[in-house]
Amino acid sequence: MPEPLTSVLSRRAEIVAEMRAIVPGEGVVDAVNEMRVFESDALTAYRQLPLVVVLPETVEQVSAVLRFCNDNGVRVVPRGSGTSLSGGSLPLADAVLLVMSRFNRVLEIDYANRAVVAQPGVTNLGITNAIENEGFYYAPDPSSQIACSIGGNVAENSGGVHCLKYGLTANNVLGIEMVLVNGDIVRLGGKHLDSEGYDLLGLMIGSEGLLGVVTEVTVRILKKPETARAVLIGFPTSEQGGQCVADVIAAGIIPGGMEMMDRPAIEAAEDFVRVGYPLDVEALLIIELDGPPAEVNHLIAEVERIAGQNGSTTCRVSMSDAERLSFWAGRKAAFPAVGRISPDYLCMDGTIPRKELPRVLAGMRELSVKHGLRVANVFHAGDGNLHPLILYDANIPGELSAAEEFGADILRLCVRVGGVLTGEHGVGVEKRDLMPEMFSEADLDQQMRIKCAFDPNHLLNPGKVFPQLRRCAELGRMHVHRGQLPFPDIPRF
């Protein structure tokens, strides 16, 4: 991480006083014990107390905080609900932690345009709760939807179990209001169909707090499908389950959701929520079909046929909405359930081509033996977004390092088979040093140039995403290879 700036640390009292002037009342937290609750996000292996915690309530306050920090060379780390699994909101010792949780109101519900305008601190599930009485819902549904904020979803381009058919956050956000590092307030997109010029909205979604601070989000809402039914399918091996996933998609069937768990995750989830998962299988597939009843019934029959061809040993179709939700209850609770069988775990996030599922699952078993650690697999099978949960005990010397190297090997495997380092959790600090596995130096330089255009002094969330700390001016540096300059005949002054 970046070394703390002594010039900033020495001015802490002055900075705290300025923050209190901008955000009066209880909006500034500077006592050490009170800041402990903000020292990490959901990647709890890494912890750091911030310089000061600021909880603004208005856009004007956010603008004033950023303007002061920009003018005075003070770093800023934006934070939503703190559910990031990649260390994306890990504080810095010399940075203001800008917490957006007080921006927690739904500002407008527009059924005619099928849109909701919300502040970034509104929870993902809070949007659906606000509109479900009229038969609408917000499609992206991360497992942490009860707690994660819509602003954090924008920062990480979050997914969820129903994103296979209905898209990630990027496919469901229509517009945002954001504050730039110099305090300027800008709007991108809106309820209209499309925007002119460059797709800056697309650039902001998934930017992990490196380019600006979101203060308002306009999302697309959908009418609930006429019918939704889920199929619970068990397989003797994970490879057979993975092949069934590929065959379902190859048959032209796009389920509303398609999730998979292996035996350790199945047993943990069933012990936690008691929903009747089969315990004599190595892999469990949950496939949800939605739409008109006739279409759903036809697709369920097709899925059952494909599952049978892949050797399924159990197949159960939900007969009521309550039963369908119970199928999902175990999957949604898988992460906390695994927390009951291991003192600690790392939740990884890599994405692969669907056809590579059997190969990667087999590879993870080999890596488990190599590193001497257990792994439980829970993942969005339909879009190849893997979430291996690496089990370890931080109290045993060396196990955290082994878990981190195990996770790195999994992500290297994902890239090797044509996949990517992250599907929805973001890069943060967790995958930062693995970026060269996927991107060349030229690729990273181009990404850095975008960062420099928005934040030339690298004050917003520094130390995240980019594996090498450097200034914007260094991008144009001249490379001297073995004492030879490029194009030596060109006159230089």
From TrEMBL:
<dbReference type="InterPro" id="IPR016169">
    <property type="entry name" value="FAD-bd_PCMH_sub2"/>
</dbReference>
<dbReference type="InterPro" id="IPR051914">
    <property type="entry name" value="FAD-linked_OxidoTrans_Type4"/>
</dbReference>
<protein>
    <submittedName>
        <fullName>FAD-binding protein</fullName>
    </submittedName>
</protein>
<dbReference type="GO" id="GO:0016491">
    <property type="term" value="F:oxidoreductase activity"/>
</dbReference>
<dbReference type="Pfam" id="PF01565">
    <property type="entry name" value="FAD_binding_4"/>
</dbReference>
<dbReference type="InterPro" id="IPR016171">
    <property type="entry name" value="Vanillyl_alc_oxidase_C-sub2"/>
</dbReference>
<dbReference type="GO" id="GO:0071949">
    <property type="term" value="F:FAD binding"/>
</dbReference>
<dbReference type="InterPro" id="IPR016166">
    <property type="entry name" value="FAD-bd_PCMH"/>
</dbReference>
<feature type="domain" description="FAD-binding PCMH-type">
    <location>
        <begin position="46"/>
        <end position="224"/>
    </location>
</feature>
<dbReference type="InterPro" id="IPR016164">
    <property type="entry name" value="FAD-linked_Oxase-like_C"/>
</dbReference>
<dbReference type="Pfam" id="PF02913">
    <property type="entry name" value="FAD-oxidase_C"/>
</dbReference>
<dbReference type="InterPro" id="IPR006094">
    <property type="entry name" value="Oxid_FAD_bind_N"/>
</dbReference>
<keyword id="KW-0285">Flavoprotein</keyword>
<dbReference type="InterPro" id="IPR004113">
    <property type="entry name" value="FAD-bd_oxidored_4_C"/>
</dbReference>
<keyword id="KW-0614">Plasmid</keyword>
<keyword id="KW-0274">FAD</keyword>
<dbReference type="InterPro" id="IPR036318">
    <property type="entry name" value="FAD-bd_PCMH-like_sf"/>
</dbReference>
<keyword id="KW-0560">Oxidoreductase</keyword>
